[in-house]
Amino acid sequence: MTAPVGHEIVELTNEQTHPLRLAVLRHDTPTKVVEFPEDTWPGALHLGIRIGDELVATSSWIPRPFPDPEPHGWSELVAWQLRGMATARHLQGRGFGALLLQAGCERARSAGAAVVWANARDRVMPFYTGFGFTCLGDGWIDDATQLPHHRVARPL
Ligand SMILES: CC(C)(COP(=O)(O)OP(=O)(O)OC[C@H]1O[C@@H](n2cnc3c(N)ncnc32)[C@H](O)[C@@H]1OP(=O)(O)O)[C@@H](O)C(=O)NCCC(=O)NCCS
């Protein structure tokens, strides 16, 4: 992996995440919808990475309880959900996703969260498990994307 240089981690508005979501998360899916209902929930944080004027990665972090009561009792803890994790396609594999994941988890921890969770696409599962997320329970096909998913979570 090439170490990213000259990058800046920035807070974004909800709308600023849309172009990358469309280009990365919606380029091969039946849905082209880029808004998530959670985008405007209280405390929702949109974090990105800029290199100069180019937004190269986005992610959204939502204070939201872990939805499954078992197996770890995490539904009792303060939790944040990660959504919309995307690195520009021509810059994937350069470490930007890792930087953003780390930054978001640090922000969640600072805000009092004890666990971060996500509904992860199976095809990028190694990205999550490589950073301490555990793959949990049975998988499902997401209605919007028609892609296989599993719940993942990481204690902070
Ligand atoms: C998943 C994604 C955000 C990762 O971002 P990235 O900037 O490419 O990730 P990084 O370069 O920081 O990679 C970090 C590690 O994850 C691994 N990884 C990243 N994407 C992977 C993938 N698709 N499959 C397997 N491993 C992957 C890398 O190999 C790297 O491991 P290493 O440290 O051992 O080399 C990016 O590939 C992406 O936008 N994919 C398409 C959209 C998507 O599926 N988003 C997730 C929805 S749940």
How many runs of DSSP E, i.e. beta strands?
A: 7
Number of helices: 3
Q: Are there runs of 5+ residues with pLDDT below 50, and where?
A: none
**What pattern of helices and strands is seen along the backbone?**
EHEEEHEHEE
Using only CA atoms, what is the Rg?
15 Å
* Mean pLDDT over all positions: 95
Shape: globular
| Distance between the first and last residues' Cα | 25 Å
Helical fraction = 10-25%
Order of strands, main sheet, comes to 1-2-3-4-5-7-6
Name the bound molecules: coenzyme A
Short description:
Helices cover 18% and strands 35% of the residues. It is α+β, with helices and mostly antiparallel strands and 156 residues long.
Report on this structure.
The protein is an alpha+beta fold. Helices cover 18% and strands 35% of the residues. It contains three helices and seven strands, in the order E-H-E-E-E-H-E-H-E-E. The chain has helices spanning 18-25, 96-110, 125-129, and strands at residues 7-12, 45-51, 54-63, 79-87, 115-121, 134-141, 148-155. It has a seven-stranded mixed beta sheet with strand order 1-2-3-4-5-7-6, with helices on both faces. Strand 2 (45-51) and strand 3 form a beta hairpin. The structure holds coenzyme A. The site of coenzyme A (COA) has 19 residues, from helix 1, strand 4, helix 2, strand 5 and helix 3. Coenzyme A binds next to helix 1, strand 4, helix 2, strand 5 and helix 3.
